[in-house]
Fold this sequence. Notes:
With 134 residues, the protein is α+β, with helices and mostly antiparallel strands. It has 4 helices and 5 strands; from the N terminus they run E-H-E-E-H-E-E-H-H. The protein has helices spanning 16-33, 54-65, 104-109, 117-132; strands spanning 2-10, 36-42, 45-52, 70-80, 92-95. It is globular, with a radius of gyration of 14 Å. The two termini are 27 Å apart.
Amino acid sequence: MLRLLYASQSALTVNEDSVRNILQTSRQNNALHGITGVLVFGGGVFMQVLEGPERNVLRTYLKITEDARHSDCRLIHITPTEERLFDQWTMGIIDSDPLEFQHISELRSCRTESVPGDAFRKVMQLFLARLNKR
């Protein structure tokens, strides 16, 4: 199994309806492919975690990179994992600017090098805690 985190800039045309459509499509497709995760959106930025079978996660990510509703799609971290963090969500949503999460800046600053596992784990725990509050 694989866990992947990426960030991108939303297109100017993205609005609440666009995000609802993304969620609906993601939830349907992810359920078919055994993928779980969370989408964080706000401030013109998307950040998404995908987790599931390696091939399915990679195929989904490649498809995402071709979506015209965003640009500058950057892989922040990818890691093998034996268990899911977001097993309750085929695609959870956090309506918040991803850059407001204090540990995101640490991950973004490490994009061209190996990301420390602790930094990645902290971000995943923050996302999970936020989802569980809903």
